[in-house]
Amino acid sequence: MQTITIASDKDHRYTASADGKHFATVHYPKWYSQDAEIELGGVTYQIKGIGFWKTSSEVLLDEKPLYNIKSNWRGTIISRAKEEHHFYKLRMKAWFKTGYVLETYKGEEVMEIKSVYSWKSFYSGYTITFDDRTSGEDGLLLVLIATHCYRAMQKQNAAAGAAT
């Protein structure tokens, strides 16, 4: 099992670190934005919302889709653009337990995401624990995409709570 920490900065930027070494950055244009840029290994990926309500997104590299993200009431589905039958599902861990888990289409748990909030600095971060099946640059990109989806769910819930 490997652990990654993602900490937020003041300018809508999150930095991802493993073993104290920075390896990626996720930047949001606004705090409530569904769009983002991921810088990983010298490559910049873009996450763009699709549709009027932006419940779907694409992860793009050089304007070509790599991953599709679809959210609904049952969870978030992350799939490769050309292999939609091999998908990952991001869902709540359990009632009365914090965090979300990422499962394969076979139901195998590959990652757990927990939110960490600093009352001292008023910034949130995340701790991600994942197994060796999601290693390498492609696996790290999947970790960052899943964390983006978890952050989006948190922001949507905060907006819905503020509206009531």
How would you summarize what this structure contains?
The chain is α+β, with helices and mostly antiparallel strands and 164 residues long.
Unreliable segments (pLDDT under 50, ≥5 consecutive)?
Answer: none
Average pLDDT number: 86
Radius of gyration: 15 Å
Return the structural class: alpha+beta
Separation, N- and C-terminal Cα atoms: 40 Å
Share of residues in helices: 10-25%
Please provide the count of β strands.
12
Question: Which strands sit side by side, in order, in the main sheet?
Answer: 1-2-3-4-5-6-7-8-9-10-11-12
Mind summarizing the main beta sheet?
12 strands, antiparallel, barrel
Q: What is the N-to-C succession of helices and strands? A: EEEEEEEEEEEEH
Please tally the helical runs, counting DSSP H or I stretches of 4 or more residues.
Answer: 1
**C-alpha geometry:** globular
Oligomer: single chain
Strand content: over 45%
